[in-house]
Amino acid sequence: MKRIALSTLSLALLGVAGIAHAQSSVTLYGVLDQSIQYVNNATPNGGSLVQLFGGNLQGNRFGLKGTEDLGGGLKAIFQLENGFDINTGKLQQGGSMFGRQAYVGLTGDTWGTFTAGRQYDPLVDMIQPLTGDNYFGSTFATPGDVDNNDNSFRIINSMKYVSPVWSGFQFEGLYALGGAAGATGSAQTWSGAATYATGPFSIAAGYLHASNANSPVTRAANDGWAGTAAPGATFDTNFPASAGINSAYAFSKSIGIASVAVQYVTGPWTGNLSYSNAQYKPDASSGFATTQKYEVGRAYLGYQLTPAALVGIGYAYTKGHGDASATYNQVSLGGDYSLSKRTDFYAVGAWQHASGEQRNPTTGGLESATASIGSYGNQSSTSNQVMVSLGIRHKF
To answer: Measured between alpha carbons, how far is 194 from 203 in angstroms, rounded to an integer?
Structure first.
């Protein structure tokens, strides 16, 4: 990473001898991830799609992060992170200038870190690193990202606390203010997670609850969802991208996601297992009457062929039931080769099969379930879909 040092002038230079301001630093960083991608069954008549697509392993971004030493082990910190489409230059995350992250806070070695702004939730911070998504990105994500394992949304208006690490144990909590006058609980989000790591073994668990706005008018103006977990644009864009898997539940009253993951590393092998339970609950304004539940089981096995070469295989089983009953089976494969510490080539691919019925977000009726790999939002014209991406990633 390039580092830009912003050293505050000593007061001695201003004529005050023996006193100096603490130094601060700002880091400019980013990721450029580009690929050529093939998707089959990508049109209503079953046609294929070949396109340039950016952000398979990591979303394209640039950002600034900085610290200032305040003395006594206390530091002020901030981070501003932009997300963009590498092929068009357009802003992502609903068109927000710093849609990936934007926060400021304080951190100390003995008492932890407190930040406020637009942030990742505790499940993304602690559980996602113990899944295949951490190694090969969106192609290994949950179908439709119904449990936000691929970080399809951030939390706005949020306050987050992250504890220090005590003998391998760490926890964090988050609360986001809904901002509705006279209705404290409207549009609020809260979450908590904890992780424990000892030697080659790691385990993490957590829960997130996101409430929609109480006002049906506010929901309609935001394409259904108007909570702090998914601001602006449409449900498919800012909430778990699904094309059809969960987009019919944008008018949910609330969403609850419970997740747990375990990982074990031995030599060149890395294996992990995870489980999520996501529940989309209705009210009178929702347009569906029964809670829709998604239970997700994932497995990943990776092998470090050489210090520069990693291969991995992942499997995700997603079962939707309650309002609509459907099953999605997805197998993913990946390979990554590092040319340097900053640049690597990769190949990722997945196959998915869907069965049962899912609710159509436009008509409101039930229809045969169609495949939609990972969090890409490419709805298949059939119950099957294949996707392959060959790409390059550069970090700075």
So the answer is: 8
Q: Is pLDDT of 12 > 50?
A: no
Is 77 inside any structural domain? no
DSSP string, 252-284: -SEEEEEEEEEEEEETTEEEEEEEEEEEEE--T
Pairing, β 292-306 against β 269-281: antiparallel
Q: Say how far apart CA 137 and CA 139 lie, in whole Å.
A: 6
Average pLDDT in the chain: 89
Domain of residue 368 covers 35-59+123-395
Question: Is pLDDT of 379 > 80?
Answer: yes
Rounded-to-integer distance, Cα 228 and Cα 243, Å? 21
- 14 within domain boundaries: no
- The 10s digit of each residue's pLDDT in 210-237 is 999 988 888 887 778 888 886 443 354 3
User: CATH number of the domain that 193 lies in?
Assistant: 2.40.160.10
Identity of the amino acid at 51:
Q
Torsions phi, psi for 343 (to 5 deg):
-125, 135
Among candidate residues 305, 376, 394, 393, the one with its CA nearest the CA of residue 42: 376
Tally of domains within the chain: 1
- What pLDDT is stored for residue 8 in this prediction? 37
